[in-house]
Amino acid sequence: MSVATESAPFELAPYKSLENDELSKRIEDVRKRLGSKLLILGHHYQQDEVIAHSDLRGDSYQLSQMAAASTDCRYIVFCGVHFMAETADILANRPEKLAERDSARVTVVLPDMAAGCSMADMAAIEQVEDAWADMSELIDTSRVIPVTYINSAASLKAFCGRHGGIVCTSSNARAVLEWAFERGDRVLFFPDQHLGRNTSLGMGITNEQMPVWDPYADENGGNSEQQIRDSKVILWKGHCSVHQMFRPEHVAMFREKHPGIKILVHPECPQEVFEIADEAGSTGKIIQTVQNAEPGTKWAIGTELHLVNRLKSEHPDQEIHFLSPVICMCATMYRIDLAHLCWSLENLEAGHAVNVIEVDDETTKWSLVALERMLQVK
Ligand code: 13P
Ligand code: SF4
To answer: Looking at residues 104-119, what average pLDDT do you find?
Structure first.
């Protein structure tokens, strides 16, 4: 089935009043008609109704590998957040893939443009460039390797590509930092201070060697000149508003109430939680850890609510708790619902792709350098 090029775009509003059953049926109909030309990717934090329609689901690293490997698909509909769709556009449309497809681009769609990541928004390219210029007055920035967490805008990935740096995800942060220290003396890590700190502590780097750079501070990111000169890893002052809700007192409360319980957290959690947890890892690793556990294992899991609830229903033989008395969910991931998915798919099929994510050529070129470095790190 080919995609039509001329017909009126459908408005979103009527989709919002449709029942989920109707939306699901229409989504499946589009999937059948478009067949292998369409790839729906879903991040593990998506709600169950949406995940049910994804061809592939994964953590950020797995999803970027899937986008990079896509073969005959022409459309990727990304059920995740903005930086993930940008990464998919860069990887699915890299020069070797375009050559394989006679220059035909893969159209990447984010069903709701408001699905951003508040952490990614904590580092803007202008701020990072200003910080880099300020640092260069104190230290030799040719020996600083910039490392951006994949949860960042493409412009930051391009910055890393241009300056000998690299991208990391929560599943490869240690290997990436080792790669960086083979090539430089210091790392500038953005935007998530917690992933940067937790990973570096595990490599023997101390908190004294990790000043936090506040882009809103008057001078030196809020540090003394000496702190910057003594640094090994300069951490950006960014965080995930979901994961910072998990506290050490929640860990203590679960351990007291449920002897033998294991604490499993995402490395975006603050150091005080991360270092007392039993296990930690990316969303993919969290899933794998639960899948491999014996029946009867008790868990308190510190990551986004939708994933923890899905683990609970998929593993009734284990006792799974959410590691917080308050609801911590990623409100932006949650913006992708069946109405937006159905609306974007029907428009795509009708030849009026909505919410297309297309990164400009210059940003793509340099982001790709940093992303390919990451994909090669083992
Ligand atoms: P993962 O790469 O572990 O899936 O994490 C993505 C994310 O946004 C976590 O907050
Ligand atoms: Fe961003 Fe946090 Fe949501 Fe992940 S959970 S997408 S880091 S806001």
So the answer is: 97
Model confidence at 327, pLDDT cuts 50, 70, 90, reads confident
Question: What pLDDT does residue 133 have?
Answer: 98
Instruction: Answer yes or no: is 376 within a domain.
Output: no
First to last CA, the chain: 39
Nearest CA to ligand 1 atom 2: 60
Looking from the CA of 114 toward its CB, the CA atoms found within 13 Å total 8
| Relative orientation angle of helices 60-69 and 361-376, to the nearest 10 degrees | 110
In terms of pTM, does the model score above 0.85?
A: yes
pLDDT for res 8:
57
C-alpha to C-alpha distances, 259 to 167, 194, 251, 256, 277, nearest whole angstrom: 39, 28, 11, 6, 14
Output the domain CATH number for residue 348: 3.40.50.10800
pLDDT at 4: 45
Any atom of ligand 1 within 6 Å of the Cβ of 60? yes
CA of 265 to the centre of ligand 1 (A): 11
Distance 262 CA to ligand 2 centre (A): 23
Same domain, 221 and 263: no
How far, in Å, CA of 9 to CA of 11, rounded? 6
